[in-house]
Structures are given as C-alpha cells and as structure tokens.
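stage 2 :: seqdesign
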C-alpha cells in the first residue's frame, strides 16, 4: 500500500511529530516531507523511507477497504517497534 498525503499528516499528528521529526526519522530532508505533503511526486524510495519511519514509530496504516468502521483509508497507532 502506498502512503497517502492524508495518512502522512495524520500519522505525524498522532505521534506529535513535526516535519523535521519525520525527516530525521526517515533520513530525508524537511523539504522532502514538505514536497510530499504538498502533493508533489517523490521517488518511490523516498516515500518508502517516510512510510518505514512512521511504521517504526508505531503507526499502522489502514488502506481503503480494510477493516475500519467506514472503510476509508487512515492510520492507527500501535506499539512502536523501537525502544522508548
């Protein structure tokens, strides 16, 4: 499942992360996060880095049609896979 802009923003909000926090966790630049959240296309590897950073922080992505009350895409906070 590809990370959507809405999921990225929602995931950052759940984590209380700024764009800089996500950029640091993903090993990318703040400009990359701003471009993505602004709807600009990124290389698939850049999107994967953003997605992986959010997953490692405890985010579970819900694709459209997956089990959720309304069947829409979204995010869910789970336990982070790194030591806190």
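stage 2 :: out
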């Amino acid at each position: 499942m590809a990370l959507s802009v809405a999921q990225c923003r929602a995931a950052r909000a759940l984590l209380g992360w700024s764009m800089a926090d996500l950029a640091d966790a993903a090993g990318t630049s703040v400009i990359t996060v701003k471009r993505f959240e602004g709807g600009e296309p990124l290389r698939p590897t850049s999107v994967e880095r953003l997605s992986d950073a959010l997953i490692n922080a405890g985010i579970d992505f819900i694709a459209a049609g997956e089990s959720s009350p309304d069947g829409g895409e979204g995010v869910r906070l789970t336990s982070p896979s790194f030591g806190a």
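stage 3 :: structure notes
- The chain has a mean pLDDT of 85.
- The domain at 5-77 is CATH 1.10.260.40 (434 Repressor (Amino-terminal Domain)).
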